[in-house]
Structure formats: structure tokens, C-alpha cells
Amino acid sequence: MKDAVIDIRNLRVEVTGRTLLDVAGLSINAGERVALVGPNGAGKSSLLKALGGFLPATQGQVKVLGRSFGGADAPTLSHQQWRALRSEVGQVMQGLHLVPRLTALENVVLGALARPGAMAIWRSWLRWYPPTLCQEARAALGGLGLGHRLHARADQLSGGERQKVSLARLSLQRPRLILADEPTSALDPAATQQACQALLAVANQATLLTVVHDPALLPLLADRVIGLKSGQVAFDVALSGLDTACLQDLYDGSQDSSLKCGASALAASPSVTGREHQAKTLIPTRQERPFLA
């Protein structure tokens, strides 16, 4: 498919006899902002891991940024091809994958290792980083309110601070595709707004696929919403066509979620300029969303 950054065909992932994913087909084009929603165990994190090559496919084929891989019937990538692919894919996972003994500043600078020619790897071994990259890292951390924690070790940071460091690192990587697994899960409301803005800024020239737990964040992070349930795609709609009934069905399982999407929109427009206003005024409150309580 033209301009498809992600293209999935007949993907099936099984672990110890349990089916984690069963996706017949899914495509995401360059520049899209897509959110994955669904109950616990729906396959949201598993899908991100499969796209990053960290969860092997039992069958089917996945194509990410022009590279195909998957089950036994799919092409196999070489070590060099995997390195090239992962240098172009920015990931914000729940484990965060920071280096505990390095400072917040150093962890962010390491994001530049994925950029061709930005920094020789021996510099990371000696912890001798280019001044220009250090300045970029300071700016990225300062923008997330961590200017006073530049030299704190990662293992001395709070969960929310580590989450921000992980987001700042993306800005130095400059990926073409960002896979974010609940990037605001450890943040308070004010920091959540700040982190969403930072994530969108980094994704300005990239494609963004985000696992979102709180529907109130959908207008901030997505133009398109994919609902997963039991490893399968329950619905795939534009944000403007998503309604509360559709989400409630996804979480409580009373009916086929695909039948109710589009009855009344959660958001009037998916435009970037209106995201913050929509999130505050057009999304139901938690009291109006008992299925998330």
C-alpha cells in the first residue's frame, strides 16, 4: 500500500498455546496519529512488541517502514536490517529501558546513537558526549520540567521523571515511527498534558501509534482510533466517528463494538490546534464513563 508505514497481513501471535493477536489486516499511513484502546489483555502492548520485532509472529506478515518480517512464511531480516529498522522506530515502553547508572542527561543523549553520524558509539563507552547533543538533551529535558534533574541517575528518579526522560530521548533519536505504550501512565494531570505536547512535537515529522488507557487523551494524541479485544480488531474509526457507546461496548463486551461506532462523535474535529480544548471539554468525565472506573 502506498505510503503505508505499517502493513499487517494475517498476523497471528501465540504463546504457550494462548492467542495474543489475531489480526487479519491493518495499515497505517505515514503521518497518521493512531491510538490503540481496549481492556487489559486485549493485545495492545503485544501489537507494539510485534511491530518492533520483540514478539515473534506465529504466522502472517508484518511490514514496517518497508521491511517485511513475521511467521515462517514471511521474509527474515538480518541483524543489520533489524538494527536499521530499530534506529528508525522510537519506542516508549512501560519498562522504559533507561540505563540505571547513567544520568537523565546521558540517557537522553544516547537517543542520538540511532541517528547516522550524530555520535560515534565509542563516545557512549567513554561517556564523552558531543556538546551540541548535550545542549539538545538539556533543552528536551527542560521542556518537560526536568531542567533541575539533569545530573540525577536514572535509578534515583521517580516513575514520572523516568517517563519524561524516555520521552525526551525520542527527540534526539528523531524516529520515523513512534510506538508509545501508555506514555502518560505514571504522570499527574499537569505532567500528562505536558508529556502529550512533547510527544506530539517529537512526532511532528513521524507516524505515531499510542496505547491510550484514558479516552480523555484521545483528542490530544490521535486522529484515528483502533479498538482491540481478545487480540482482534473490534473497530477502526476516525476520532470524529468515535462515540461513548462504542467505547463502553469495547470494555464491557455487551455487543459487537463495530456496530455502534459513529453514532455520536466524541470530538468535533481531529485538528491538532484544537486537541487540548477538545480533551478538556468534549470528552466524557470519569463519572460519565463508569466502564473505566
Number of strands: 10
Query: What is the H-and-E element order?
Result: EEEHEEHEHHHHEHEHEEHH
Which percent band covers the strand fraction? 15-25%
Largest sheet: 6 strands, mixed
Question: Which class do the helix and strand fractions yield?
Answer: alpha/beta
> Mean of the pLDDT scores?
84
Number of helices, counting only DSSP H or I runs of 4 residues or more: 10
Question: Could you say which overall geometry the principal axes of the C-alpha atoms support?
Answer: globular
List the uncertain runs: 254-259, 267-273, 276-293
Estimated radius of gyration: 19 Å
Strand order of the largest sheet: 6-7-8-3-9-10
Q: State the separation between the terminal residues, measured CA to CA.
A: 40 Å
Helix content: 25-40%
Offer a concise description of the structure.
The chain is of the alpha/beta class and 293 residues long. It has ten helices and ten strands. A six-stranded mixed β-sheet has the order 6-7-8-3-9-10, sandwiched between helices.
